[in-house]
Amino acid sequence: MTHATGHPLRLNRPTLTEFERFGDEQYSAEELVAEMGAAFLCGFSGIENKTIDNSAAYLRTWLEVLKKDPRLVLIAAGQAQKATDLILNQSASASGA
Q: What is the pTM of this model?
């Protein structure tokens, strides 16, 4: 669901709209946004994330991107929050943004 929010007619996230190939830096950043969005949505809905080990292993493959730009975690978290708000139909003012 988080990936779908990046569509140009929704949040128009460059990490989704501008990647050139699977595994490039844009794609890696989008995967981080999607994983964080999934975690936020699980937390909101009370779904226990029993796949946390799988998620951690998956994200470990993208660690090189994070090493190049540590700010990416904060950027991805912000984008994941916007995606979560869109999915939950919350306005920016309701979420404190």
A: 0.72
